[in-house]
Amino acid sequence: MLSRILGLVAVAVGGTLLAKQMQKSGGKGSESRVSIDVDLPVRTVYDQFTQFEQFPQFMESVHEVRQLDDKRLPWKADVFGKVIEWDAEITEQIPDKKIAWRSTSGTPNGGEVTFKELSGGRTHVTLEMYYEPQDAVETMGDMVGAVRMQARSNLQRFKDMLEKRGSETGAWRGTISKESGAGPMH
Q1: 153-165 pLDDT tens trace
Q2: Which domain holds residue 108?
């Protein structure tokens, strides 16, 4: 009987926290920002990050990213236990500086990753990301910082993978200007 009461209390508290978070954010998503320093030159780090189809090698929940052209990327990933798909568009890309994106279908998200050259041939990588949870499970996960923790873990795996290898596996050095991007985020 006591465990049933405690279970009901836990559900009530969780529901209250969820309601407060939804009210605080207006039912919208949240932003995460994580950074890491990679012990390789900015060109190497940036070039590897342009290899979108290799993201599943270091992004734990990502099953597949396909690059259809310079801008369009369909994604397939596991989000809080369910497989979801969405399309993303590169909205800005400046070699050795920045890659920005937004979703065009599926789960609303977007962000940018920036690259800053440091002394000693090192690179500071910052990932800023917006994600709009689609249900109560995703909202609760967001409330406890799961998105930020996953992003931090993914960047750490990217760093470890690239430093171990010592060089990029490919590169795309083209520029996509912000003006050629298609409107606001989905």
Answers
A1: 999 999 999 999 9
A2: 27-180
